[in-house]
């Protein structure tokens, strides 16, 4: 399905997508003339701080896989990355994970203080919905897209997973509980990414469902990979504090399955992801992306 | 325009509206079976803690003024109250206003801890958009309504005002800066309330604009009233800590205008509010509501 030897072209493609996303994120910040600078500055700091941009790239690729154009997907892509970024800002707060380093830079509250970091997170979360509802070209799809995003990011999705994650520290270590946390905390937003891309392109329900399923399994693979890297990599490589999960007694794939077991779980989930989109002709770039993610722990 | 002697009926009407809102808020919390209890419980605690419910009531009354039904307005009304509630939870955090009392009860973080309070706020904010986009009967109005709500609550609205409010503590005390803060911090969400009610009813643009203008001026009146009450009332009466603004060196109407001047400002803004809806036949309940609010500082 893909030429695995051609990794330089694949890397270039990903860099190009990342550049498209970066430019759009900057452009879709709230306008300086109507936004207090004391708020816009910390919002911008974390939003343009880099990162893999994997979620917005998934929106774009899912949209392309359904025959859609980038301009149809970019508002949703930016909205999703704003929500991911807000969650990192709040996650790093002293009352939460209390972290000093993110994307290779000091965390938001270390630069602007806790109050500004809380508000910058709130503002990015809220602004995400403004961007999605104002800028998405297919107006008829907006109600469904807002539902998808709010559901995936909210109490039945990402925030719910974060609450379980905090509550699980030092507690129960069953595989079932781990899956529940990872599905909410990580997979929900990945599934929303590919679903939003499909909706943005005006896809048929069956195709949108398949892409959503792909996103969910990719998210579970991604989280297992992330857990392995937290154990095996340095903070320099990660751009965030390494070995943190263990110190905080987090419930992770490596705690439940061991490092090798977590690798196997990542491989299993990535196969399920690829199965989900095997019937979609335009999805070859998503296959590439899946393989590239797996190479991080190869 | 209204029979001011008939205050018992008016009070009853308001109580009835409040009861409608209370019942709906409870019903529109995320379902227990798919929401982690560690998150749903702190969300519920603050959302059903009472309060005047003035914003959702404004949504209902604006919708009725345009000939709409309550079921058309209730999703937006609940969404707005969820956003107002999240802003109170985050505002009360130690890193922000550091308050122990809200709506006559211990603040969210005093009961559940800071991490849960941050997440409960995030969850209410996100869930508000799910409710608005999932449950609003007039699907064609949803994109505009999401835009209105996100804009009013976001960096160009409420959160922007909170950021300015924090930055203004102990600083500049010009009337212009005060107006800027109050327009963003309070009036934006009031204006959104009446605009959302109009949109929910499928109102014509001219009527929706008039109601939005009414909401804005009512919000400015409300904030001036709130500033007067903070100086003149006890914590028991307010259900939140009285005299707090002065201790935190907040920029308020009473600081800029004095207590009598703030009363005059409230009266002036409420007249502007009433002017805005003088041409709307169905708006007599909004006239009643305006007068009742003014009576709080009479």
Instruction: Identify the CATH class of chain A.
Output: Mainly Alpha
- Please give the domain count of chain A: 1
Mean pLDDT of chain A: 92
Helix count from the secondary structure assignment of chain A:
14
The largest chain-to-chain contact, stated as pair and per-chain residue counts, equals: A-B, 55 and 55 residues
Q: Which oligomerization state do the chains in this entry correspond to? A: homodimer
Global shape of chain A: globular
How many strands, what sense, and barrel or not for the largest sheet of chain A?
2 strands, antiparallel
CATH superfamily of chain A: Farnesyl Diphosphate Synthase
**Topology, number of strands of chain A:** 2
Terminal-residue CA separation of chain A = 20 Å
- What portion of the residues of chain A fall into strands of 2 or more residues? under 5%
Helix content, binned percent of chain A: over 70%
How is the largest sheet of chain A built, in terms of strand order?
1-2
- Element-by-element helix/strand order of chain A: HHHHEEHHHHHHHHHH
- Per CATH, the architecture of chain A is Orthogonal Bundle
Judged by helices, strands and strand pairing, the structural class of chain A is mainly alpha
Low-pLDDT residue spans of chain A: 1-8
Task: Spell out the blueprint of helices and strands.
The structure is a homodimer of 298-residue chains.
Chain A: H1 7-27, H2 37-47, H3 54-65, H4 70-91, E1 101-102, E2 105-106, H5 108-112, H6 114-135, H7 142-153, H8 158-168, H9 175-200, H10 205-232, H11 235-238, H12 244-247, H13 253-276, H14 284-295
Antiparallel strand pairs in A: 1-2
Helix pairs in contact in A: 1-3, 2-6, 3-4, 3-9, 4-6, 4-9, 7-9, 8-9, 9-10, 10-13, 13-14
């Amino acid at each position: 399905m893909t030429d695995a030897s051609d990794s330089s072209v694949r890397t270039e493609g990903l860099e190009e997508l990342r550049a498209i996303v970066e430019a759009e994120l900057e452009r879709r910040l709230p306008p300086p003339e109507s936004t207090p600078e004391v708020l816009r500055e910390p919002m911008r700091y974390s939003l343009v701080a880099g990162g893999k941009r994997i979620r917005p790239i998934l929106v774009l690729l899912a949209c392309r896989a359904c025959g859609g154009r980038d301009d149809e997907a970019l508002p949703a892509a930016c909205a999703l990355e704003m929500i991911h970024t807000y969650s990192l800002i709040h996650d790093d707060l002293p009352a939460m994970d209390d972290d000093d380093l993110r994307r290779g830079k000091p965390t938001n509250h270390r630069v602007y203080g806790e109050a500004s970091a809380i508000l910058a997170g709130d503002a990015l979360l809220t602004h995400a919905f403004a961007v999605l509802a104002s800028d998405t070209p297919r107006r008829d799809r907006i109600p469904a897209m807002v539902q998808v995003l709010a559901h995936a990011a909210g109490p039945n999705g990402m925030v719910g997973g974060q609450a379980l994650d905090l509550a699980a520290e030092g507690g129960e270590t069953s595989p079932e509980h781990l899956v529940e946390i990872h599905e909410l905390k990580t997979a929900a937003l990945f599934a929303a990414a590919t679903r939003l891309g499909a909706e943005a392109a005006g896809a048929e329900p069956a195709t949108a469902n398949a892409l959503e399923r792909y996103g969910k399994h990719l998210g579970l693979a991604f989280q297992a990979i992330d857990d392995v890297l937290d154990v095996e990599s340095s903070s320099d490589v990660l751009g965030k504090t390494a070995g943190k999960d263990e110190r905080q007694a987090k419930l992770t794939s490596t705690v439940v399955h061991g490092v090798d077991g977590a690798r196997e779980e990542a491989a299993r989930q990535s196969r399920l992801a690829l199965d989900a989109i095997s019937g979609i002709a335009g999805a070859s770039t998503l296959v590439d992306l899946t393989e590239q993610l797996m190479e991080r722990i190869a």
